[in-house]
Structure formats: structure tokens, C-alpha cells
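for the recovery benchmark. C-alpha cells below, seq after
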């Protein structure tokens, strides 16, 4: 791993991948891309997409898909730990976790170089809509929103649908996060792309830039890419890629394409976090005494 000149500087790489049907092939490909990010681009933190070892199976409800789940820690985390230890790199991604028979989660894991497995976050917000049948597979997370004290800084791990919720970002930052990381699987339904595509992707990007600004933190988003067919219908999802990294003032520091497996890399200066929170003192001016109703579905 390359040593950067500033102690507050962290080189972050986002791996954007197109998934294949074979789990081992996806894992090997991901490990190869992580190695490339570290050895060729000097990455200290590498982020992989949501459920990166498999096709996005949540397009349909199929009980056989539960066979893909594994314990966390388990074989995938062991493989990530081995590589992270060798390369001295911090890794964040999402795995289909089998907690016990009948209880499964979509779980982010944080692997920190020679320290190994630091812990996990279970996805809190679970979507349930056409093509994203996640409530069939995943129980809502029960570990709370959390930041992990890694060797490169405080990293908050959230997963995909969580990225739409300002409460999730804020609570993770309140736990210490300087960097919010979102492993993601999001794309277009072919029948909607022409009419809704531009507005959908703009909304997705804008809301996460808003998290960066309102919380004075970096935001790192790793999406999958490529078209994945629906198992039984003549449709599917075109995952739109465009993984990106945002600064605390909302600037897009780098963005991947909408079509290719690739790595994007950026040097983050973590001193910008304190600078942003001081110059835009949103954290100071919060009215914590007035937010009790946020814990209700409605004030009606």
C-alpha cells in the first residue's frame, strides 16, 4: 500500500462490477479488481457493490435462492480478510447473510487490513417493489446505524435503499463516520428508462450529495453495472453503474461510466470534514429538543 504525504489523506477506490452467474467467478473477479486498485492505484480503502458475489436474485421470489446465503463471518469474509491482510487495505461490501435458518439479512462487512474483520451492519431499509423483492429475502437490520474505526478513518457502512434516508446518514455520522459508504444495486427497468431514466438517476445522485453536504462528510457509492435478465419474464434490470465519490461540500470528485466494469480512485483529505462542519455548522444548529416526532410514522 502506498503511503500518502498527508496523514489526513486517504486514497479511496470504488470497484464497479458486472456480475456473472457463478459465485466463485464473481469473488475471484472482485479480488482481482481489489488487487489492481491497491497495486496499480495505491488504494487504501476499496468499496465493492452490494451482493457482489451473485446476480441480483431479488428480481423474483424463489426459495432456492436462500442456498446462496452464508454466515458472516464466513467463506466470503475469510477470502476478503486474507487479501486485505496481504495488501493492508480496508474493504467494504455487502453479503447475503444467513443468520439462522429462516432469518437472513443483506449485510455490509468491514475488513480492515491486518486487523481483519471489524464487524457488520445489517441493511435497515428493505425495499419491496417490482423487480426489487427484497422483503421476501431479508429481515430488517437490528444492529443500528454504526461507524467503524478503521486504520484509515471512521467509515460508516450502509446499503443501497438506505441511501434515500437522511435519518440513516445522520445517525451514522453521529456515531462518528467521516465517510459514508453505500454498496449498491440500482438500475432501470427497460420500460421506464426512456421516460423516467434521467430523473431517476438525478434523484439518486442528488439525495446522496445532500447527505454529504448536510453531514459534512464524504460519500462513496459503489454500484453494479450491466443488464441482468428476469429469470421468468422477458424483462430485467439495466444496472446503471455511475458509481461516484462526493466531497463534504457536494462536489462530485469522480464518477464511473454507465456501462463498464471499472475502478475509480480519489484522494480524500479528511481534514475537509472538520472544515465543512465548522464553516457550515449544521451539526451545531440542530434542534435536538424538537425532533421527537421523527420517531413516529405520522404526527396525525
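predicted aa per position
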Amino acid at each position: 500500500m502506498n503511503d500518502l504525504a498527508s496523514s489526513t489523506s486517504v486514497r479511496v477506490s470504488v470497484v464497479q462490477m458486472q456480475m456473472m452467474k457463478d459465485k466463485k467467478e464473481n469473488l475471484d473477479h472482485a479480488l482481482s479488481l481489489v488487487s489492481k486498485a491497491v497495486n496499480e492505484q495505491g488504494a487504501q480503502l476499496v468499496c465493492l457493490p452490494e451482493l457482489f458475489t451473485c446476480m441480483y436474485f431479488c428480481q423474483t421470489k424463489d426459495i432456492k435462492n436462500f442456498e446462496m446465503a452464508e454466515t458472516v463471518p464466513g467463506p466470503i469474509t475469510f477470502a476478503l480478510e486474507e487479501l486485505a491482510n496481504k495488501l493492508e487495505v480496508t474493504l467494504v461490501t455487502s453479503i447475503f447473510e444467513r443468520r439462522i435458518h429462516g432469518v437472513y439479512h443483506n449485510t455490509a462487512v468491514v475488513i480492515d487490513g491486518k486487523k481483519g474483520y471489524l464487524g457488520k451492519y445489517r441493511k435497515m431499509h428493505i425495499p419491496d417493489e417490482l423487480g426489487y423483492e427484497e422483503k421476501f429475502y431479508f429481515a430488517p437490520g437490528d444492529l443500528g446505524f454504526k461507524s467503524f474505526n478503521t486504520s484509515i478513518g471512521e467509515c460508516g457502512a450502509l446499503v443501497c435503499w438506505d441511501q434515500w434516508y437522511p435519518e440513516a446518514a445522520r445517525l451514522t455520522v453521529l456515531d462518528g463516520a467521516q465517510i459514508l459508504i453505500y454498496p449498491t444495486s440500482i438500475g432501470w427497468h427497460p420500460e421506464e428508462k426512456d421516460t423516467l431514466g434521467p430523473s431517476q438517476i438525478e434523484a439518486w445522485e442528488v439525495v446522496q450529495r445532500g447527505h454529504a453536504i448536510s453531514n459534512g462528510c464524504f460519500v462513496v457509492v459503489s454500484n453494479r453495472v450491466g443488464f441482468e435478465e428476469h429469470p421468468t419474464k422477458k424483462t430485467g434490470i439495466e444496472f446503471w453503474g455511475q458509481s461516484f465519490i462526493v466531497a463534504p461540500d457536494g462536489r462530485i470528485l469522480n464518477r464511473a461510466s454507465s456501462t463498464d466494469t471499472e475502478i475509480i480512485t480519489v484522494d480524500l483529505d479528511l481534514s475537509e470534514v472538520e472544515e465543512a462542519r465548522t464553516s457550515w455548522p449544521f451539526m451545531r444548529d440542530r434542534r435536538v429538543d424538537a425532533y421527537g416526532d421523527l420517531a413516529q410514522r405520522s404526527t396525525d
